Amino acid sequence: MTTTALVVDDEVDLCRLMQITLTKMGIKSDVAYTLAQARSYWQENNYDFCLTDLKLPDGSGLELVKEISNSSSSPIAVITAHGSMDLAIEALKLGAFDFVNKPLELPRLRQLVESALKVIHQDNEANATPESSPEQKLLDTRLIGNSAVMTPLKNTILKLARSQAPVFLSGESGTGKEVVARLIHDISPRRDGSFVPVNCGAIPSELMESEFFGHKKGSFTGAVADKQGLFQQANGGTLFLDEVADLPLAMQVKLLRAIQEKTVRAIGDTKEIPVDIRILSATHKNLSQLVQEGAFRQDLYYRINVIELKLPTLNARRDDIPVLAEHFLGMIAHEWQLETPPSLTTEARARLQHHNFAGNVRELRNVLERAVTLAETSLIDISHLGLPDLEDSMGYQSPASQTRHDHSDGGTHLNQQANAPITTQPIENNRGAIRSTDKRINPEQTTTNLHPYRTNTQHYPSMVQRQANHQTEVLSDASLRHDVETVTQASRQSEVSEKANVNELAEGQLPLEGLEHYLQEQEKQLIITALKQAGWNKTQAAKLLGTTFRSLRYRMKKLDIAEDEVDE
After folding, report:
1. Nearest alpha-carbon partner for 527 in 538, 512, 516
2. pLDDT digit string (tens) for 110-146?
3. What is the pTM of this model?
4. How far is residue 193's CA from residue 234's CA, in Å, rounded to a whole number?
5. Could you give the C-alpha distances from 494 to 431, 551, 556, 565, in angstroms and in order?
6. What does the alpha-carbon distance between residue 345 and residue 264 come to, in Å, rounded to a whole number?
7. Beta pairing, strands 278-283 & 167-170
């Protein structure tokens, strides 16, 4: 079946040029020179796509864009004069598929038409099998969940995938912005091209231009060969700018021109190269506020924020937590090559649904990885999750409990409280008074690496609190009293030592050997005291003295303190 198109423009020569180009591509086209004529043609015929100018003698092309987008799924592209980017962006927001600038370049026109043909082909496949289209299957497989907020989100993603308009993904950290960006690419007409993700905050500012646009051999010191930039690598595909708010202002200007003109020039090159890419961007920061503060260019903000897609937090989609948990457990079993896939008990599944996930989906996966590591069998119970008790998180108060301030996130209010305290006498050491009114030990001293495959796991506040509470529960009262007595004895010895040092000189008396020698002797005695208390562990002694390991080692060398030195 022959593809048909409607061309709308008041310039006769330009219409003839576009009609000849479409004919060579095997597309039959009709030409309309006014808005009224275009409306009449569109109602009388069934066109596959439309190409219209924005400025027409009897009206604006934006009206035609709005009418066709609301009444049909056929892609419509706009032609805009050079410098009329604001109108092009407005057309994209109204539902335009893409735009092309005047003066018209035939290679760019062919790219636009080929992209439109891919959209038409996808629509025909979806209409043939509406219940099991490949795009819908991929969407349901990659974007887990069918809660009330996820259904409209999936429908929006399907619409955005058909367009070529820049999309800005906003949402909290851990909500899956890169997952959605890759999904938009994979179900779009650009899926045969490359998806190039880049973290804008991870590239040094002095290398940013070379990374984005590439460079020619010999253009600067160290440029021993030609290098393709990220824009060239993403040609025909999608470029995903993650953490776009971290771009320096100098780079924002260059990025703006590349997005607007769809051309880039490598460092050291003398000509610009056209690129056919779609820009997707994301950040967890408030980009509009950064624009008001002058930290982000307003013109670039409007270029990348043509369509904003806000991703919901995990707390706003609690019904999806059990399905997400089963999905992640399956992934963990595959990645870790477990013989028996882990599963959750009913109590553990219910506990996850009542937890306040500050880190969203990323925190959920971290919790499950930790639970799989701690569980002795393939069955994960509520004790393996490492989450605070519901009584603690919901503000349950007992006669011996201490409540903390209320903590809210995403409309869910959870009050966290400390464990029941056991009052002891105040304890003082050589660094100041430390009052112990709780039988819990310091989380910084007791936190262990619970995941054997990670060394820098990010712990969310709820996990850190639960780890401290869990370790406290296994301490016996006898062990606690022993630790308190040990610390008290060491602190009293430290106090006696400090008083002796301070009272070496009577009031009004000056050191006989000079101030410098006196201060060095005092410093030497303090370091030796700290080393003894730490069992000659220099790292622990540095912590007791409130200094660094390197500084302590330097002072020991300077003061000639041997590692086995002992006071007589």
Report:
1. 538
2. 988 998 888 888 877 766 665 667 888 888 889 999 8
3. 0.66
4. 7
5. 9, 22, 20, 18
6. 55
7. parallel
